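Predict the 3D structure for this chain.
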Amino acid sequence: MQIFSLVMGILSLTGLFVASVPCFGSLNWINIPFAGIGLIISIIALVNAKEGSKGASVAGIILCAIALVFGAIRLMAGGGIV
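Done. Predicted structure below.
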């Protein structure tokens, strides 16, 4: 589950970069819920992880949180959230 959370974090960050292209800003409406689901899965993976192997879930949390915050900022700057 930790690897899955890391993959979701990488995909949501990639989606953020694609959505930052001027004509693709509406992709943030898809990417923000995807990053939110990835964040929830990453937190669950962190809680269920053993003591020595928490790195992938922590990285997933960080990547999903970055994609969530900057995606919301991008939507607000582009007028997507009214």
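The chain has a mean pLDDT of 90.
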